Amino acid sequence: MTLRPQDIVDFTFDAPDGWFDVELLSDHGSDDWPERLAAQLSAGEPTEKELAERFRALQQLLHSEDPTGATRARVYVPVPAAGVLNAFQTYELLQLEVDDSPESYLAATDAEGDHREPGYEILGYRSWRTAHATGELVGFTHLTALADEDAGDALLEQRVVFAVFPVGSAQAVQFVFRSAFIGGFADMVAETQAIADSLRVTLGEFA
Description:
Elements: E1 6-12, E2 19-21, H1 33-41, H2 47-65, E3 72-76, E4 87-95, H3 102-111, E5 116-117, E6 120-132, E7 135-148, E8 153-166, E9 171-179, H4 188-197, E10 200-206
Antiparallel strand pairs: 1-10, 2-3, 3-4, 4-9, 5-6, 6-7, 7-8, 8-9
Helix pairs in contact: 1-2
């Protein structure tokens, strides 16, 4: 007898110091979030203004990628006085169909490991699969080269993605970490996987 999968009704995960929740443009009262967080970090002028501008640009980027607000985000600012956003993280639930599994997810990501098109190229792709406290984890990382037509060169961004498949769940939890700041981490893969490894889920109703 096969038990029906259950919905994830809640999930939580740890984050080291320096990570802050992003208030999305779709959230009520988020218009002044960039200024509020910049002031909270007490970086001093003019850095505080620069941080607010970067936070607002991040809000706009996230909204362009998912205007529904279903994809939540955190931003990594370990040294506010530097005026730099080291990285940002998005996280969401992925609804699983009958045939979806860690194997199929890994196969789909591996198939795109050398993807390239005008203005976009994946470099240095690698992937892995391992046990997780809740079930299984699939991870992959690569550099993304994004063409900057104004500058005439490419912007390099490192991405690390994790999909966690809890046993008996109708959803997977996906984390995406992105950083265009060289030196933003001592080891981006290890540090971000520590966050994914801390995931805890609560299962509820049968899907």
